[in-house]
Amino acid sequence: MPVTQFAVTDTYEYLNGFGGYKESEAVEGALPLAANSPQKCPLGLYNEKLSGTSFTAPRDDNLQTWLYRILPSASHQNFTPVPESSPNSLTSTTPSFGKHFNAIPNQLRWDPFDFDKESSWIHSLHLVAGAGDPTMKQGIGIYIYAAGATMPDKTAFYSADGDFLIVPQHGVLDIRTEMGKMLVRPNEICVIPRGIRYHVALHDNEPVRGYILELYQGHFKLPELGPIGSNGLANARDFRTPVADYIEDYENTEWTLYGKFGGNLFAAKQSHTPFDIVGWHGTYYPYKYDLGRFNPVGSISYDHPDPSIFTVLTAPSIPHGAGTAVADFVIFPPRWLVAENTFRPPWYHRNTMSEFMGLIMGNYDAKGAGKGGFQPAGASLHNTMSGHGPDMQTFEKASTMDLPPTKVGEGSMAFMFESCLMLGVTEWGLKTCQKVQETYNAHSWEPLKVHFKRPESSKRGVSNGERRTGVRSARDSADFSAS
């Protein structure tokens, strides 16, 4: 089905299409004609430029938006650090250059993360893993969020550290951004670029939970399609950007603006709402996407391609070479498998990329489900060059089953944050959350059976028994005699 059947209807308005120039007016005539910065802006508005890239970035990569607002964003008091005792504090600051990150080769899997019914958006952000340093605009951070309350009235939040790619697992996020409003439901994602201010409300007071990848360097793009051609995977037309929507609140009022800066949280008071943009135009804005509209491709003969065919968004890492990403967002949607004489689940592999997986709903076809398995709201991390693949039960079944055309993943959606970086895990992720499955290896791979049978005529290789009894192959004997 090309569109997800959501339980909650989205009544907000959007502009369609990924990237490129867009414009929106909440009041007709808010945008000036021709000039971006006339001597006097229409309707008595202030103009302000929001830059997501350097001014001189190549045209195809340049991200700049002109905002026409009631008061400029610069109009606020000084920022001060938010104390840890505040209900709006960050639960964990961002470690810099690996400090306080635990970079370990072990395969890790987490049970479903708990709801936190007392926390609103900011305090619910738990840093699980990452690499790099936002002050150097290098690397990524991976968060779990679990909130049970709407952000307080007259508050707003932004991250100066990076773009937030938000993946809801449970509950609906009602997000008011500076550019307009978005309703983001499970099986949808949204991206809120660096610096854009927003407020998160809960829909019908239902708790929310999900995953976030914060991208410290660059911005997300659609992957190149290569031989696939001009259509497929995440089609550009299915991305949606909010339209201008503003609040008039600038008399006898006080708002609190929270800013995540260098991994720490700061707050500033201001005498007007941050959500006062009456019109905007440019190339830098938030957007959302329905994962149910993803158009998978795959093999129709034998074997199956690499999981890169499931990439929704990518953030290239130029220093690491062409085709390498500091972050890929990959999904495993419902799809048909028809490959003949093929082991259909993902093969065993070791990857130069690190793979953090989450499960939005249903069961993942390469892992056992249920208690102790890979469950919705849980996660796994297979770090750089750490071996992984199907668990024993999945292997035994997949290597002996009949292979008719099969629909897999119905009612399921797994995803992966993949990165060329070696990811470290925080103390919260390893210990504090108390969700790490200590028996992950024992459950998944230690029980794997030996199916090897050496042909009687084979003369290559040495069995354990031969070594114990001193029996040598002809080659070993020849080598020994010549020494």
Automatic annotation (TrEMBL):
Pathway per the UniProt entry: Amino-acid degradation; L-phenylalanine degradation; acetoacetate and fumarate from L-phenylalanine: step 4/6
GO biological process: L-phenylalanine catabolic process; L-tyrosine catabolic process
Transmembrane segments: none
Domain Homogentisate 1,2-dioxygenase C-terminal, first and last residues per copy: 293-452
Active site: H304
Cofactors that this protein relies on: Fe cation
EC number(s) given by UniProt: 1.13.11.5
A Pfam family that the UniProt record links to this protein: HgmA_C
NCBIfam families attached to this UniProt entry: hmgA
Protein name per UniProt: homogentisate 1,2-dioxygenase
Organism: Exophiala spinifera
